[in-house]
Design a protein that fits this description.
There is one protein chain. This protein is α/β, with parallel strands linked by helices. Strands 7-8-6-9-10-11-12-13-14 form a 9-stranded mixed β-sheet, covered by helices on one side. The longest helix has 16 residues. One of its GO terms (molecular function) is UDP-N-acetylmuramoylalanine-D-glutamate ligase activity. Pathway: Cell wall biogenesis; peptidoglycan biosynthesis. This is UDP-N-acetylmuramoylalanine--D-glutamate ligase. It is an enzyme of class 6 (ligase).
């Protein structure tokens, strides 16, 4: 069996390792350059590869193709494969049959990284033999090849879910759904929503779907579609007989006739959106039979996620916050919503069809100045030009941070929460966040 892998990044190399181990004839093809450390892995494992091209003769003879989530279905080589009837899968679909581990799959427009990291922290602190992967950390396929975990916590993007056929998590979470990546879904929101719900399509009565009961898109989908999984909702506004909710500053969870309560003030994460992430992750811990004491300890000592509302430094009584991971409007909404002091907001990048109107009331209430950090800032200027007193355009992070310092007074906050992708000026959101942190340290 010939396994062709499109994309020589983390998921591609991991799949190549697992494929080789399982006896496939493996070939890796990357249209860009493959990183040196990944090339070394391919050479050591005697796996054939090419870079900066897709040689059709070597690709269209595959029995099975794994494409990296970054490659759209519309790309010419993928179209040709599909026309030939060659199955094109995601890494998750390829690797899942080779492990008997319990899989916890987490998707959503926002909050999925925090929820994934927190669920992993809860299970690991309880002494479970658990792996972390998917969209973060080491490739799932690579771990299936090299480790023998009893369970996995996987962060899953809609792109990864688009490439599944039989993949089935025992516990699925949909943190929330808001318009994102619509450029990959023909600009149809319903296509993107359907893509997220693929996480539950193969679940049975023995499986669980944990979801945000306050989310309109999720509620609508559940009204008109069915899943066999047992539903476990969480909510900030409703009192639920089954599921998780917040009442009188207490998180209350009731699952399978078992109760768990905890004062929200003892939960390390702050902000309303993080209470949702905590309810989702704690529901996983309850389903995995983790002791209440362990859950309480883990929720109170969790460190949070880098580049997500990360407090960098306080300089002259001004707090600098790195929220570079906010690559869409909804994520930035949560960030602005959690600001309690006058805020200088650094925003901008590659716009994915953003509608800034939903931020309007928060900007009026909390933002004193806006710094646009992008190649094309027209939409942001049009949206907020008349709303804030001060608006500045810059084209690099050092200028953004120095300008922010000039515009602040004691007690203010500087918030990097771009609401956009980073690819116009930075390698990725991590690079953008790291540059911000370095620029703040240089002040």
């Amino acid at each position: 069996m010939r396994l062709v892998i499109l994309g020589g990044g983390e998921s591609g190399i991991g799949t190549a390792i697992l494929g080789k181990k399982k006896g496939f004839d493996v070939f890796v093809s990357d249209f860009g350059k493959i990183k040196e450390n990944y090339k070394e892995v391919l050479i050591i494992n005697e796996i054939a590869w090419e870079e900066e091209k897709h040689t059709e003769d070597l690709i269209l003879n595959g029995d099975l193709v794994m494409k990296s989530p970054g490659i759209p279905e519309k790309s010419p080589i993928v179209k040709k494969l599909l026309e030939k009837g060659i199955p094109v899968l995601s890494e998750i679909e390829f690797a899942a049959p080779y492990t008997n581990a319990t899989i916890i799959g987490i998707t959503g427009s926002n909050g999925k990284t925090t929820t994934t990291m927190l669920a992993y922290h809860l299970l690991k602190s309880a002494g479970l033999n658990v792996g972390l992967g998917g969209n973060i950390g080491k490739s799932f396929a690579w771990q299936v090849a090299d480790n023998d975990y009893d369970s996995y916590v996987l962060e899953l993007s809609s792109f990864q879910l688009d490439g599944i056929v039989n993949f089935k998590p025992h516990i699925a979470i949909i943190t929330n759904i808001s318009p994102d990546h619509l450029d990959r879904y023909d600009y149809k929101y319903e296509n993107y929503i359907d893509s997220k719900f693929r996480i539950t399509m193969n679940q049975t009565e023995d499986d669980y779907l944990i979801y945000d009961a306050d989310d309109e898109a999720i509620a609508e989908w559940l009204k008109t579609h069915t899943t066999k999984a047992k539903l476990i909702p969480f909510s900030l506004t409703k009192t639920l007989s089954e599921g998780a909710y917040i009442k009188n500053n207490k998180m209350e969870i009731s699952i399978n006739q078992e109760e768990f309560t905890m004062d929200t003030e003892h939960i390390a994460l702050e902000g309303k959106h993080n209470m949702k992430n905590a309810m989702a992750a704690t529901s996983v811990a309850k389903l995995m039979q983790i002791r209440k004491l362990t859950i309480r300890e883990s929720l109170s000592n969790f460190q949070g996620v880098e580049h997500r509302l990360e407090k960098v430094l306080k300089i002259q009584n001004v707090q600098y916050i790195n929220d570079s991971k906010a690559t869409n409007v909804n994520a930035t909404f949560f960030a602005l919503d959690s600001m309690n002091t006058p805020t200088v907001w650094i925003v901008g990048g590659v716009d994915k069809g953003n509608d800034y109107n939903e931020l309007m009331s928060l900007v009026r209430e909390k933002v004193k100045a806006i710094i646009c950090l992008g190649v094309d800032n027209k939409k942001i200027i049009d949206a907020f030009g008349n709303v804030v007193d001060m608006m500045v355009e810059v084209d690099n992070m050092n200028d953004a941070v120095r300008m922010a310092q000039r515009l602040t007074e004691k007690g203010d906050t500087v918030l990097l929460s771009p609401a956009c992708a980073s690819f116009d000026l930075f390698e990725n959101y991590e690079d953008r966040g790291n540059q911000f942190k370095q620029a703040v340290k240089n002040l």
